[in-house]
Write a structure and sequence with these properties.
The complex is a heterodimer of chains A (247) and B (71).
Chain A: H1 2-8, H2 11-42, H3 57-84, H4 87-119, H5 127-148, H6 152-165, H7 169-179, H8 199-231, H9 236-239
Helix pairs in contact in A: 2-8, 3-4, 3-6, 3-8, 4-5, 4-8, 5-6, 5-7
Chain B: H1 6-11, H2 16-55
Classes of the chains: A mainly alpha (247), B mainly alpha (71).
């Protein structure tokens, strides 16, 4: 267990293992995503009230779910880098931010497109949507803050603090649809109690959520790899990557 | 398949424009976040490789992370 934890802190090991993992995970993720989306868009019945516009759910909900989960990953990596000064945790935190921002952007964008035919408006300043917009700014804030510092140690500390403080926003997003009654509908999938969504719609949705987790993981790992290469460019193990016979 | 024909699936009773544009934009963003780092990694590797060929001197020592025992 401890040796595994130590390995996680080793750039060469992380670079090698992420390469192997991606070779399997990336194709698997893309296939899962295609299956889930084709299933959702073409093989399910329309919603009895919203008609066909509800089909946006198969990208909107997964993107939002994973955008939130990604924030936990970023804040956790930030905490580890802040407390134990673990360099690879810092790399993970930095790699999370653009991916999380992209997923939050997808959730907001598809939400707006879904809102037009369903609510008659692209945008309302309700609690759920506003708190998701704050999530986007938190992600973008981490990206920008990193670039703003020349001293990378100070940058990583500032970003870790920002991502931890931003955690306050997460329960607000979760609870916003229950605390403030608004246009946004409450959650249809529940871990406890009956879900208010038909199984024929639930299964492709769950599959799509799995696929979006895969997309997040792949993008995170690939971002970490470029960051590791950039930081370790002058070390022996990177130059040994180009030795003859190792293409 | 729920829809009777391809044009039915494209139109979706008037919601097609919303649904398909949402999917198209999502595909665009996902392609960007999956392809972007890959291209960046290739570029870094190519640059390092060229640098190394130019110098043609092996980098001193085999330093790896100090907090990685046994690696």
């Amino acid at each position: 267990m401890w040796s595994f934890f130590h390995k996680l802190g080793s750039p060469p090991w992380l670079y090698a293992i992420s390469g192997t993992l991606l070779r399997w995970l990336l194709p698997l993720t893309l296939v899962t995503l295609l299956v889930a989306l084709f299933w959702g868009v073409l093989y399910t019945a329309p919603d009895f009230r919203q008609g066909n516009s509800y089909r946006i759910i198969y990208i909107h909900v997964p993107a939002a779910v994973v955008a939130l989960a990604g924030y936990y990953v970023m804040a956790l990596a930030g905490a580890v880098s802040l407390i134990w000064k673990m360099k690879m945790a810092d790399v993970a935190m930095k790699a999370c931010a653009p991916v999380g921002a992209a997923l939050t952007f997808i959730a907001l964008l598809t939400g707006a497109i879904w809102g037009k035919p369903t609510w008659g408006t692209w945008w309302v300043w309700d609690a759920r949507i506003t708190s998701m917009l704050i999530l986007l700014f938190l992600y973008l804030g981490v990206v920008a803050l990193y670039e703003a510092y020349d001293n990378k140690a100070a940058a990583s500390k500032a970003c870790a603090v920002l991502s931890l403080v931003g955690m306050v926003n997460i329960p607000i997003i979760y609870k916003s649809v229950d605390w403030w009654y608004s246009l946004h509908q409450p959650a249809s999938i529940k871990f406890t109690g009956e879900s208010s969504i038909d199984p024929s719609m639930l299964y492709p949705l769950l599959l799509s959520i799995v696929a979006f987790y895969g997309v997040f993981t792949c993008a995170l790992l690939m971002n970490m790899r470029t960051e590791i290469l950039t930081r370790e460019a002058r070390t022996g193990w990177v130059s040994r990557l180009f030795e003859p016979g190792r293409s | 398949m729920y829809f009777e024909s391809v044009s039915d699936a494209l139109l979706m009773d008037g919601h097609g424009g919303f649904v398909w544009s949402a999917y198209l934009l999502t595909a665009l963003v996902l392609t960007l976040i999956l392809l972007g780092p890959r291209i960046k990694e290739r570029k870094i590797l190519a640059r390092l490789k060229a640098e190394q060929r130019r110098n043609n001197t092996p980098v001193q020592g085999g330093e790896v992370e100090s907090n990685a025992p046994g690696s």
